[in-house]
TrEMBL record, chains A, B:
The lineage of its organism: Bacteria, Pseudomonadati, Bacteroidota, Flavobacteriia, Flavobacteriales. It catalyses: L-valine + 2-oxoglutarate = 3-methyl-2-oxobutanoate + L-glutamate; L-isoleucine + 2-oxoglutarate = (S)-3-methyl-2-oxopentanoate + L-glutamate; L-leucine + 2-oxoglutarate = 4-methyl-2-oxopentanoate + L-glutamate. GO terms for molecular function: L-isoleucine-2-oxoglutarate transaminase activity; L-leucine-2-oxoglutarate transaminase activity; L-valine-2-oxoglutarate transaminase activity. It holds the Pfam family Aminotran_4. One of its GO terms (biological process) is isoleucine biosynthetic process. The modification N6-(pyridoxal phosphate)lysine is found at K197. It comes from the Bacteria. This is Branched-chain-amino-acid aminotransferase. The keyword Iron-sulfur does not apply. Coiled coil: none annotated. PANTHER family: BRANCHED-CHAIN-AMINO-ACID AMINOTRANSFERASE, SUBGROUP IIII AMINOTRANSFERASE.
């Protein structure tokens, strides 16, 4: 057992490493895990000191509230290697802030910033060799908190676990995605938890997404639950639409996640002198634009998928294809943001964070 | 290792029992667990045979999808002892049916009826001594299914665990409850998962309920997320309102749980020649009735809380008290349903199920 300089985070190193078993040239998304993980317990009204320990199973009582009442939240982040072998994070304090926004809504105790940041940095340093160096690959970082306290009473748990796991990963989607604009099912309610990265927001999307996949689509674009007329988000991504030369995305709300890639893309697009509109966007506006040819591009934006170009969408049993653009906004913005993330270009926004 | 007659369920008995440590005269709700539990794994596309094993911790990979994507569903049931020491269940096949309705919406594989019923009966027989005999106590039964498969891709798991745990329990609420009619937060969306017993439906209620508790209320009555004008349910209970001599409850929908206590109460009330209306119920109707004195009773109905009389409600910063009734519908209906459950009266509906 060794402790780090600041002594907030203790480190217990694994006796063996699995790194030699990993094919870094053929990484899928989020299915390979590094040698260590961060664990931090909430007990007796306080977060205990974070610990880096060997990656391994979590043991819970069958009555732990995570199994019954869905009290769980998470974040998605990435670490990037540059050509000098330095490691970079992207706006990590925003992830910490958002995790606590989710925590509050789910009645989970907030995690102090230094526990999050020192825990994260210590873990990444211990498993730094695991960060992929291949083009398009990165270290996907999954901080999460769940209710580990026990009992069948439907009320908040008295114990929680904050953990961080590391998954060296390739692309989330391979190629362009075809989406279905949803007319029946919904992702979130007004006054609900749609803005939080709460576990339950994801489980509710799986069945409607399966139905869409059976029809030949990759993802669902969610609309508001009352009229199904307003475009919200795609579950794992925020949605951007380009009509003529204007880039449009919906405003965040209590139904839509305040995506870090989303807000970064808005700033980069403005910096590129692209006309950006953050406003409510109707399905009929998008359909009309698809019909008259003014719909030039659609893409999703999120940490896992980065920028994911959409090849076409389905709506009311009709498919609409988008044009093939060589030099669209999506490819321009993706290059700008990944160049910042991988330390290939100037970071005028101050988003890069050196490990 | 012994197997039951039907050989579907294997039994591994605990070498020791915790039963002597339990004070059956002072049971709280859902915090004492019996010696055994049922475990049934879904792997390689099929549910494996259910096993009764000693109650003990569940070990999961940190990437198990239950921790990240909220894929979990549950049921609440009870077993009752009569004065002859026979054990009774109440409409257990309805719980199995509803578990599979929840499973479908959460993209969880459905559990076969015989796995559910034989697993449940075998477990109850092994731990039959744990079923409380005290007035007002019962064995709370918690069947649940969660995603045990691994990976950070936001998609359904490929492995699941179906489990049943037993918690000898006293009352869920002690005394009458005071409720707050919600004007801002919501429990469910049109096209969402509100009708399912999904974990995420509960986590989302904790924070608004905490806010209500801070104001002196016990529970929140949820309203629709669009207008907050229609009364839906109380999260752990369906809601009944008595205006003059008419008993009113909202219709089930994709936002409201199809409660087994709810539908039983409707049938018993009809059998008592009470005028029952299953229709949309507005907040303004209830407030008007409270003001003019025609609001006689409100109560919640659910497996855990049985029938829980409401002493008053808050709405728009005003509190409305309900009259103290000696012989109201709530006490009559509670007696009728618990007499059936505890085998104290004829069961003309065929709901009782002998173990």
């Amino acid at each position: 057992m060794e402790t780090t300089a600041n002594s907030l985070v203790t480190v217990e190193k694994s006796k063996t490493s699995k790194i030699d078993q990993v094919d870094f040239d053929n990484l899928s998304f989020g299915s390979t895990f590094s040698d260590h993980m961060l664990v931090c317990d909430y007990k007796n009204g306080a977060w205990e000191n974070p610990k880096v320990v060997p990656y391994g199973p979590v043991s819970l009582d069958p009555s732990a509230k995570i199994f019954h009442y869905g009290q769980s939240i998470f974040e998605g982040m990435k670490a990037y290697k540059d050509t000098e072998d330095s490691t970079w994070l992207f706006r990590p304090l925003d992830n910490h802030k958002r995790l606590n926004i989710s925590a509050k809504r789910l009645a989970i105790p907030e995690i102090p910033e230094n526990y999050f940041m020192e825990g994260l940095k210590t873990l990444l340093k211990v498993d730094e060799k695991w960060i992929p160096k291949n083009e398009g690959s990165s270290m996907y970082i999954r901080p999460f908190i769940f209710a580990s306290g026990n009992g069948f009473h439907a009320s908040p748990a008295n114990e929680y676990k904050f953990m961080i796991c590391l998954a060296p990963s390739g692309a989330y989607f391979s190629g362009k995605v075809k989406v279905l604009i949803e007319e029946k099912y919904s992702r979130s309610a007004n006054g609900g938890v749609g803005f939080a990265k709460a576990g339950g927001n994801y489980a509710g999307q799986f069945y409607p997404t399966q139905l869409a996949v059976e029809k030949g689509y990759n993802q669902v674009i969610w609309t508001d639950d009352n009229t199904h007329e307003y475009i919200e988000e795609a579950g794992a991504m925020n949605i951007f639409v380009r009509i003529n030369d204007t880039l449009i995305t919906g405003p965040t709300s209590d139904r839509i996640l305040d995506g870090i890639t989303r807000k970064s893309i808005i700033e980069i697009a403005k910096d590129e002198n692209i006309n950006v509109e953050v406003r409510k966007l109707t399905v009929s506006e998008v359909v009309t634009a698809a019909k008259d040819g003014s719909l030039k591009e659609m893409f999703g934006a999120g940490t896992a998928a980065v920028i994911s170009p959409i090849s076409g969408f389905g709506y009311k049993e009709t498919d609409y294809d988008l044009p093939e653009l060589k030099e669209g906004f999506a490819s321009l913005l993706k290059k700008r943001i990944t160049d910042i993330q991988y330390n290939k270009a100037e970071d005028k926004f101050g988003w890069r964070y050196k490990l």
